[in-house]
Amino acid sequence: MSIDTATAARVAKLARIAVPQEDLPKLADELSGILDFMEQLNEVNVDGVEPMTSVTPQRLKRREDVVTDGNQQKAVLANAPDAREGFFAVPKVVE
């Protein structure tokens, strides 16, 4: 796929990158090269290939998923302008 300078200018504008007019042909060539490489990657057959997290086989560290209150109630409520019975107190907005 070939990118022209108008498309490169539009991409630069959308990315909020200031690209001088004389650098737009180079940017267009680079973007075209990236798209060509992506087309090459699409040609690779990856059927039956397991996803990897690393090039060496290893298991990720895991911890037990336990719900806790964090034991921080007093510290958190210390910042509240008004707290009652262990909760934030807010003004009533619905009657």
UniProtKB/TrEMBL annotation:
It catalyses: L-glutamyl-tRNA(Gln) + L-glutamine + ATP + H2O = L-glutaminyl-tRNA(Gln) + L-glutamate + ADP + phosphate + H(+); L-aspartyl-tRNA(Asn) + L-glutamine + ATP + H2O = L-asparaginyl-tRNA(Asn) + L-glutamate + ADP + phosphate + 2 H(+). The keyword Mitochondrion does not apply. Gene3D superfamilies: Glu-tRNAGln amidotransferase C subunit, N-terminal domain. GO terms for biological process: glutaminyl-tRNAGln biosynthesis via transamidation; regulation of translational fidelity; translation. InterPro entries: Asp/Glu-ADT_sf_sub_c, GatC. Keywords: ATP-binding, Ligase, Nucleotide-binding, Protein biosynthesis, Transferase. It holds the Pfam family GatC. Its EC number is 6.3.5.-. One of its GO terms (molecular function) is asparaginyl-tRNA synthase (glutamine-hydrolyzing) activity. SUPFAM superfamilies: Glu-tRNAGln amidotransferase C subunit. Allows the formation of correctly charged Asn-tRNA(Asn) or Gln-tRNA(Gln) through the transamidation of misacylated Asp-tRNA(Asn) or Glu-tRNA(Gln) in organisms which lack either or both of asparaginyl-tRNA or glutaminyl-tRNA synthetases. The reaction takes place in the presence of glutamine and ATP through an activated phospho-Asp-tRNA(Asn) or phospho-Glu-tRNA(Gln). PANTHER family: GLUTAMYL-TRNA(GLN) AMIDOTRANSFERASE SUBUNIT C, MITOCHONDRIAL. HAMAP family: GatC. Belongs to the GatC family. Heterotrimer of A, B and C subunits. This is Aspartyl/glutamyl-tRNA(Asn/Gln) amidotransferase subunit C. It comes from Litoreibacter arenae DSM 19593. The gene is gatC.
